Amino acid sequence: MNRKNNIILIGFMGSGKTTFGRWITRTHNMEFLDTDEYIENKYNKLIKDIFRDSGEETFRDMETQAIKELAQVCDNCVISVGGGLPVREVNRSLLKELGIVVYLEASVDELVKRLSKDTSRPLLAGGNLREKIESLMTAREALYKDAADVIVNTDGRRFEDMYADIVSAVNIGIMED
Q1: Is the model's pLDDT at 153 over the cut of 80?
Q2: Cβ atoms of 122 and 48 closer than 8 Å
Q3: In the 8-state DSSP scheme, what is residue 11?
Q4: Which among 37, 102, 47, 44 is positioned nearest to 70, based on CA atoms?
Q5: Could you give phi then psi for residue 129, rounded to 5 degrees?
Q6: Cα–Cα distance between 154 and 66 in angstroms, integer?
Q7: E strands, the chain, where?
Q8: % of the chain at pLDDT higher than 90
Q9: Is 150 a residue whose pLDDT tops 80?
Q10: Which of 39, 64, 66, 121 has the fewest Cβ atoms within 10 angstroms?
């Protein structure tokens, strides 16, 4: 398989995919794309409104379509994907074709801290935040690990060290400085 020179960031909401992805693109001359932003721009609608108006299944279909479209245009990109995108088997396969898949792993304690004031995430709305995170993590963690080429822990770590983990784990020439 001839994978493209892309880094795909997967992980739970709040694991740092967008922030770390933007850092990589600024420091390593790559383009940044976020599947949630891509979908919001394409459909001119916020993710939470898509969930509310059309449901989660429709949103998941949009994610699959977004990955297919990005696969046609992305080269030397960092792509941050929504936390639920890797749940579908077809998406995990598409991600592996698109580039090096990096699972940004974060502890439940860290996620609770990072997400405690975030009101934009429909799957975390209402109820006990810790319980919702734990429940979703139980359902998703094995799928994230299945999709990943590299697993990088993000708790209390500097971006430089996280990036070094990717470079040392994946020596295929995409990390040119």
Answers
A1: yes
A2: yes
A3: -
A4: 37
A5: -60, -50
A6: 26
A7: 7-10, 31-34, 77-80, 100-105, 150-153
A8: 54
A9: yes
A10: 64
